[in-house]
Amino acid sequence: MTKLSEAYKPIQARSIPKAPLNVKFDTLKKIMSYKRAKYCLAFLFLIVIIGVFAPILAPYNPNKLFYDALLQPPSKEHLLGTDAIGRDTLSRLIYGVRVTLSVSVFALGITFVAGTFIGLICAYIGGVVDNILMRIMDILLALPSIILALAIVAILGPSLTNAMLAVGIASIPGFARLIRGAALTIKSSGYVEASRSIGSSHSWILRRQFLPNVTGVLIVYTTLFIGVAILDTAALSFIGLGAQPPTSEWGTMLSEGKDYLYEAWWLATFPGLAITAVVFSVNFLGDALRDVFDPKSKG
Amino acid sequence: MENVLEVKELTTQFKGKVGYLTVVDKVDFTVRKGEVMGIVGESGCGKSVTSLSILQLLDKKGKVSGGEIRFKDIDLLKQGEKELRKIRGKEISMIFQDPMTSLNPVLTIGKQIGEIIVKHEKQKGSNVKSKVVELLQLVGIPRANELFHEYPHRLSGGMKQRVMIAMAIACNPSLLIADEPTTALDVTIQAQILDLLRSLKDDMDMSILLITHDLGVVAEICDRVVVMYAGQVVETTDSRTLLRNPRHPYTTGLIESTPQQSTIGKRLKSIPGQVPTPDEYGMGCRFADRCPKAMEICNHGVPPLLMIDENTSCRCWLYKEEEHGV
């Protein structure tokens, strides 16, 4: 650089300190400093491990029928009891992790990508594009998302994949609207103008100025949505449009178990508890993540 | 001296409820190499719109509808968006009035300044980082090393403005447009920032187009000044002449309404009335309603911008009869 006037002679450049940047590691460390989030993260990690090693961990084949042990309460042989046709609940629960988690992650992926994209585009371009896309979203929002999902499955045919697709697509409008709202406040801010004044392209502004600013909203809504995705898929499975028997899926198990609530409490209770625990953990984790990603909370 | 920027008959219009309103009306001025050119006027005179027009950063409702903006040898109005992007930030950069909102709250200082270097100079990694730290030191920020990883909310207004300046000068631009850079800051910081701008200008050999409503700032830093009123240039001259010997009644009014040594103990004068909005411009001189020297002719036609002497031109009927006219 050119010579400096006396007043602004720089302090002799000390060596630039290493950034606390191994970003991922850094973030993880911060999450770990939230006690509740730490346990939730550990729990979710455990669940994933269980899903991965299901064949090793499950005591029985999830579809094996024990004709001599129908509707057995929890016992030594069947830790969480058996269902009406003699299948081991624990094994089904363990295998169910795979289905349930992949369903929610897949559905989430669709909503996340499409919703963020539509929301940002609407907010940034505005005008006619915004109007048209948002009116379409409004029409879709007028229907409860489960009805919309039903219609989509009805068109595509009942299967687990289609159920995931349906749940994902049906949740796009709400997500897009939320992101658009968050992005609109950014559009008029000084730093977007400042970014344009240094020659940023539109896509650069969207990626570097908008996206980091909506991350907080994104993360919270995403974690909330995992719960919704699990429940919606379960609902679809319940009316026979989602996971087809004999697939062990937590939602399906829950709705099957509900018929035996008086005779066999364990059938609905354990899948219910499992869903609750996962949804809770994800939500708590989301809270912590929001704090971590909000620069103002970084001491 | 060589002209860095020549603005000729720049006209900018905004879409109103009924047709287009002319907000900037045939504005002419030039910025020479290495000088500080000031644009002065009340709020609503079209100063900021003029500056945004140069880089074509107006939002959708506004458009430059005529004139020519010549930067070095390029006509900026004929450039496409892509070419303009290469000029913005690299050749001409800009700092804004409110440093509080001009930095993205979720990106670190280092990242934000680094962006412009990555974009225009295609540098990477540690090169960018040492350049950023160098820039931060250049604009007089202490602890530049540590600040690299800080978020904007930890900085004061003056510091943020310094960061904005660091961003603006990162690529050695030939022209810096400063849109009221000190308005949102308190007085001592104002002086520091002006000092900084002046020394950077000298060190880096750039020109500054400074937009302000504060004649104190003009006296402090500007070499030449354009006085704008209601979208038109009413007076152009060097700043010394402007302050000692104002020609246009509006300039006189502005100077009289600034606190000075000689006015201590006296009641400060003010210009009665308000700047007309673009839909209120009449046939005559736009300042006529507020002018203490208004004559009959003032209501009948807009006076032309006359060269009064070598350095000075003025838009007022008072000077029509004088011999140095035309």
UniProtKB/TrEMBL annotation, chain B:
Specify the protein's topology with respect to the membrane: Peripheral membrane protein
Q: Does the keyword Mitochondrion apply?
A: no
Which InterPro entries does this one have?
AAA+_ATPase, ABC_Ni/Peptide_Import, ABC_transporter-like_ATP-bd, ABC_transporter-like_CS, Oligopep_ABC_C, P-loop_NTPase
**Compartments, as annotated in UniProt:** Cell membrane
Q: Which SMART domains match?
A: AAA
Superkingdom as given in the UniProt entry: Bacteria
Q: Which SUPFAM superfamilies match?
A: P-loop containing nucleoside triphosphate hydrolases (SSF52540)
Query: Which cellular component appears as one GO term in the record?
Result: plasma membrane
Sample GO molecular function, one term: ATP binding
**UniProt key word Cell membrane:** yes
Name the protein family: Belongs to the ABC transporter superfamily.
Keywords, ordered alphabetically: ATP-binding, Cell membrane, Membrane, Nucleotide-binding, Transport
Main subcellular localization, coarse class? Answer: membrane
Q: Name one GO biological process term.
A: peptide transport
Provenance organism:
Viridibacillus arvi
Q: What protein is this chain from?
A: Peptide ABC transporter ATP-binding protein
What residues does the ABC transporter domain cover?
A: 5-255
